Amino acid sequence: AQSVTQLDSHVSVSEGTPVLLRCNYSSSYSPSLFWYVQHPNKGLQLLLKYTSAATLVKGINGFEAEFKKSETSFHLTKPSAHMSDAAEYFCVAGGDDKIIFGKGTRLHILP
Amino acid sequence: NAGVTQTPKFQVLKTGQSMTLQCAQDMNHNSMYWYRQDPGMGLRLIYYSASEGTTDKGEVPNGYNVSRLNKREFSLRLESAAPSQTSVYFCASRTWGAGGPRDTQYFGPGTRLTVL
């Protein structure tokens, strides 16, 4: 069965410091993997995706993620946090039919 | 090209009432999905349709039914609404299967449903 685990429900970082949001997946085969961001009372915005090409994926707003098959991980990083990054982030795995979301990580940015 | 559209945007129901949430996409996608979003739970898959004429249960199908009316439209029906179904509902469609370089989902704006 396919599943996605976001290891932290809340992460707090200071503005200008690195961001790390952790995601592990389980799947019987290599899924497509995605990160979405959702700002309060807004819809979902795609940050980046991995679809079996390069394992280091660059997305919008300076975010990137690395697919590590041996660790079944797809962690999201950003070198320097900005206040506008405060939002909820979802790691998502897409199998051949279903798309499964993690429970989300809320990112807080401290001034 | 409107993408994925959902109606209504907001709805308030009384316990026991029924309603249908409508979803349509104009991108010729085969796969469509219904999710509900609740605080701390992420988006949970209710039902999905891998192609026209097929539907399958997701993680939380109880209390819901779906119809894939044609390739464009995928509706979600609550036959007898309960307060536990108060949530934000998202419809999505998908371009491609797993691993395809064009694999992307497109989400509707959501329907905020309150059941009193």
Description:
The complex is a heterodimer of chains A (111) and B (116). The mean pLDDT of chain A is 91. In chain A, a hairpin with a 5-residue loop joins β7 (56-58) and β8. Chain A has strands at 3-6, 10-14, 19-21, 23-26, 32-38, 44-50, 56-58, 64-68, 73-78, 87-94, 99-101, 105-110. By secondary structure, chain A is mostly beta strands. Chain B is 0% helix and 51% strand. Chain B has strands at residues 4-7, 10-13, 19-25, 31-38, 42-49, 56-57, 64-68, 74-78, 87-94, 105-107, 111-115. In chain B, strands 2, 4, 5, 6, 9, 10 and 11 form a 7-stranded mixed beta sheet that branches. A 4-stranded antiparallel beta sheet of chain B has the order 1-3-8-7, with no helix packed on it. In chain B, a hairpin with a 3-residue loop joins β4 and β5 (42-49). Chain B is globular, with a radius of gyration of 14 Å. Chain B starts with a strand and ends with a strand. The interface between A and B is medium-sized, with 27 and 30 residues.
